[in-house]
Amino acid sequence: SLYAKKDLFATLLFFESVCGAVVLFMGFGYWHYYLLAMPLMALVYPIIYRCYSGTRWYKGTAILGLLLLILPFSYQFLRDIGKNYMFDFKKYYDADINSVKDVMKNIPESEYDSIWGYNIPAHFYMYADVIPCYKYFVLQDFQSESAPQIKYEISDMLDSRNTPKWIIINNTDEMNNEKLNRLLSEKYRYVMKEDSGIQVKVYQREY
Description:
alpha+beta, 9 helices
């Protein structure tokens, strides 16, 4: 069996871990995905160490590899854990929360079920504590690049009589949906623009 060939088994695990780490390193600004791999590496390396039955050089190489893969990202690991705890759980010091609250002050609570965002981040809905009224509700331009039918379905929705009472669009990116631009200019009134935190524009349906 493969396990009987301990050195081979350990070597395969070692190089698989290295390759996985290299892929994660290529994420550049997305190093928080490294959090997914670190617990697995903590489990794999004791197995590698135990399987190597040869000289100390083998075991030393495994330990060195573990340090090289984990130490450079230890600060990022702790930083992301702290960030996730403070922002996602405690919700402290997050400018997005305050900006979303400012937006929601303009929308009657009775109309929370008719809010739809275009190209806005998903956590807007979480901070606002609302459920979007249409199934495609975040980063639609980006999603449409790989799934063109999304753009057509959104177009059909915008042609219907049951358009959302409130539409919130991204304030930083150029919107590529001409039909939505036309709809906003013809049937909606501009309400506000939020420049801090989540940067959005808010529109209300007039009729």
